Amino acid sequence: MRIGVLALQGAVTEHIVSIEKTGALGLPIKRIEELDGVEGLIIPGGESTTIGKLMRKYGFIEAIREFAGQGKPIFGTCAGMIVLAKRIAGDEAGHLELMDITVARNAFGRQRESFECDLEVKGIAEPVRAVFIRAPLIDEVGPDVEVLTLYKDEIVTARQGNLLACSFHPELTDDYRLHQYFADMVKDSIAANL
Ligand code: GLN
Known about the structure:
By secondary structure, the protein is of the alpha/beta class.
């Protein structure tokens, strides 16, 4: 099983290391043609405005929408979650506009710029270690979106069919269970398309 990590900007190598712990092959994706060689895609954290700009420049908006349209799973973490969202709070336009969520950027304020904690994730037995860095929150979810994690009553992980999004950085810990959760989504989508 091959899982791509969008390699335009952000925490690419760490995601590849984490995905390979699940037994899948992790491949950096720099050109749209490379999407043909993977069954799932991770969009990493970084800076969502920069990632969105580079995605437009290299044709990734259409290519990733098509990828999602084929039922292939996508996992957006932190800035990657912002890029996946249909709506961004404030005046900012969305990027891929695939997932029926509204996100608020940099939602934790200055004094909480970065922090770590353990969080319950629906579908994973024990709490998962979560690293938040200038993290976004999910303000609203559409009817088809399942909330998987709350942090102090705020939504920080959610799933809509083959789309998974989280506010934090699962690739910066040696807890690989969220990557395993995503790898299982990819495995299920391959089985469903056989
Ligand atoms: N604050 C960043 C943004 O709005 C996201 C931060 C991150 O990915 N760690 O794009």
